[in-house]
Amino acid sequence: MGKIFYDIIPPKAVNVKIKPNNFKNSIAKIAVFGLIAALSWAGISSIHRTAAYFNDVEESQNDSFVAGTLDFELSSNQIFSNLVLGPGESATGTISVINLDNVPQYKVKSDSLSGELCDYLNLEASLDGIAEYSGKLKDFDFGPTIFQGPDDWFFTLTLPASTTGDVIGKSCNFNFVFYGSQIKNNLPFGQGFTDTEDANSSIKSLMCFDSEIRSKGYWKNHLNVTQTYLPQMLGNEIVDSTSSAYRILGADYDLSMINKLKGQLLTLKLNIADFGIGDYIPTSSANSLSQIADQADDLLKQNPAPDNSILEEMKDLLDGLNNDLKIKVCTETGVKVLIPNGGEKWWIGESYDLTWITKNLGCPDDLAYIDIWYSNDSGSTWGKVASSTENDGVYNWRAPLFLENNTYYIPSEKARIKVVAVCSENMMVAGWDMSDYDFCPPINKDLLTPEELELAKALGLIQEETTTQESIVTEEQDIETTSTEPAVLDVGSVSAPVSEETASGGGNQSPVTEIPAVTQENSINAGQTSTSIEEISAPADQGIIETINNIIENVVNGIIEAINPEATTTEPAKNSTTTETATIEQVPVVEQQPTVIPENNQTDQAPPSDNSSSGGGVIGE
Question: b/e string for 104-121 if b means 16 or more Cβ within 10 A?
Fold first, then answer.
C-alpha cells in the first residue's frame, strides 16, 4: 500500500493579549464549570441506585395490646400480733400467697428485725405441708420458688427452754417479706416485673402460766383458806373475819342485788390474792381483773346506790370471771419452772436436773434462795425436795422412793414440781411457779438403794417370787394362814403415811382415806402371834371403796409376810386345811385441812399456794 501524505499547514502565530477583566471572567467560568461537573458526577454516581416507596394502610377492629403485669397479695398483713412467749413455749402462724396476675417466682425472708429477743427465737417454716426451713428466725431466707397457688405458709416460733431469765420482758419486731418477679422470657430473678408484700409480727417474752379461778362456793366451804387472804375491802365495808366472809358468800345473803355483787366481788378479790392474777385482762374486757374489781368497789361506795340494772350488769361480769376454770397469766416478774413442765418420765433412782428462771423478784438474784417441793397429786399435797438452795437455775435431784423421812411417796402419774423464791432480806416469798402439767416418775427397781428396795418389797410395790405355804390345823391350833403373793401396784395406787409436817406442805390437802392400824381384832392370827402395821393413807378418789380394800388387803398380807414370816408357818396337821385372809374395815373419808400460810410467808411450813394447777410466778401479795 502506498504512503499517504497530508499537507500540513502550520498555524500562523497570533499575538494574544489578556486583559485583566477577561482573566477574572475566566476564573468565574472555571468555578461554575467545576460546580456543574460536581453536580453532574453526583447524579451520575447514583444512577445504579433506584429508590421507590410503596405505601398501604389496613385497619383491624377491636384489637388491644397491653403489657403484662405481676401482682400477688398476702391473706393478712400480720402473722404474729402481740404474741407472748415464755421459755419453752411455741406459737404457730399461717399466711397464704394469692396470685392476681402472671405466675411469679418469689422469695420469702425475715427482715427488719429489731429487739434483743430476736436473737433467741427459732423458726420452723413449711410450704403446703412440706418443711422448708428450721433454724434461727434472723437467718430465714428461702427461695426463689415458683407460685403454684395458693401457697400456704405455716410458721412456728419457739423460745427455747434454755433461754436465760435476762430475756424476760424483751421483745422482737420483724417482717416476713415476700419478693416476687416474673418468670416469662427466662429472666433472672429480680429482673422484669416485680412485686413485694410483707407481713409484720411482734413478740414479747414473759413468764406465763395457767392459773385457776375458784367459785364463790369454794371460798365459802374452805374458810381456812379464805382466812389467809383477809381482810378485804368491799366498797366501804371491811371483811376481816371468816364469819363475815361466810355471811357474804352464803346463799342467804343473796337477797338483794347489792349483796349479790358483794359476794362475787369478794370471790374475785380472793382469787386475785390467791393466784396473783390481778394483771390478767380477760378477752371480754379491756380492763385487768384488778381494774374491774376497782370499778365494782366504786359502785358499792356510791350513795345512793346505783340502779339495780347497773349492779346486776357488774355482778354478772364478776360471776362469769369467777367461773372461768383456767386463765393464762403472763408477767415480767417472778419464777418460771422450765423442767419438768409436764409429760416427762423420770425413773425413781435416776438423777435429773430441775431447772427454772427468775426475773425481777424484788430483791437481787444473789439475795434470793430457792425452796423446791414435789407433789404426787397434781399439786394438792407437797413434800419438800430441797430448802434454801442457791438461785442458780438448776438443781440436780435423784428421784427417791420417798420424801419427808419415808412419809411422802414419790411414784405417781400426777407428779408436779414447785419452785419457790424467797428474798433473804425479809424472808418474804418473792415468786413461785409449778409444772404446767403432770409428769410421771415410775419405779425402776434396779436403781433403788438397798433400803428403798426392802421398803418397796415390804409395801408390795415390787413383785417377787413367793411360794404358797399351807398350814394344817392341829389339836393346839384351829386356824392356818396362807401366804399371799405381794401385789404389783401402779404408781399412785398406794401412798405412804403422810406426816403432819408433810400434810402441811402444800396448802389445801386432798381428802384421804385412812386405814386404821391392824389390831388384835382385824389382824391375821397364827397361834398366839399378832402383827400390826402403821397407818397407810391413800387418795380417796381411787375408785370404789371395795376395789381399794382389795388392793390394801394384798399389801397388808405382803407386809406381814415380810415383817414376820413365822406368822405364816405352823405345825403341819394331817387331816384338814382351812384358809383365812385379813379383813380390813371400811374406813371413813377424812378431809385434811390445808395449812394456813403465816403472814411472814415462812416457806419451811408450806409452799405459797394450795391446789393450783400452775404456779403464780408473781410477787406475793
Answer: bbbbbbbeebebebbebb
Q: Tell me the longest C-alpha to C-alpha distance in the chain.
A: 199
∠ CA 384-390-401, nearest 5°, is 30
Helix axes 289-301, 308-322, angle to 10 degrees: 150
Nearest to 88 by CA among 415, 331, 342, 370: 342
pLDDT in tens, 458-475: 887 776 655 444 433 444
User: Which three cell numbers mark 603?
Assistant: 416457806
Cα gap 470→570, rounded to integer Å: 9
Contacts of 243 (CB under 8 A, 6+ apart): none
The string of pLDDT tens digits covering residues 119-137 is 999 999 999 999 999 999 9
User: Cβ-count burial of 184 within 10 angstroms (0-12 exposed, 13-18 middle, 19+ buried)?
Assistant: exposed
In CATH terms, are 72-205 and 335-434 the same topology?
A: yes
User: 335-434 in CATH: which number?
Assistant: 2.60.40
Q: Grid coordinates in use for 297?
A: 368497789
Residue 506 amino acid letter: G
Q: Per the structure block, which three cell numbers stand in for 596?
A: 394456813
Contacts of 372 (CB under 8 A, 6+ apart): 354, 384, 385, 386, 389, 395, 397, 417, 418, 419, 420
Q: Strand order in 428-434's β-sheet?
A: 383-390, 368-375, 416-423, 428-434
Q: For the chain, how many residues are written?
A: 621
Predicted confidence (pLDDT) per residue in 562-604, tens digit: 565 554 444 433 333 333 333 333 333 333 333 333 333 334 4
Q: What is the C-alpha to C-alpha distance for residues 33 and 22, in angstroms, rounded to an integer?
A: 16
CATH number of the domain located at residue range(s) 72-205 in this protein = 2.60.40
Distance (Å, whole) CA 391 – CA 479 = 61
* Sequence spans of domains, the chain: 72-205, 210-331, 335-434, 460-493+511-590
Residues 561-590 as b or e (16 or more Cβ within 10 Å = b): bbeeeebbbbeebeeeeeeeebebeebeee
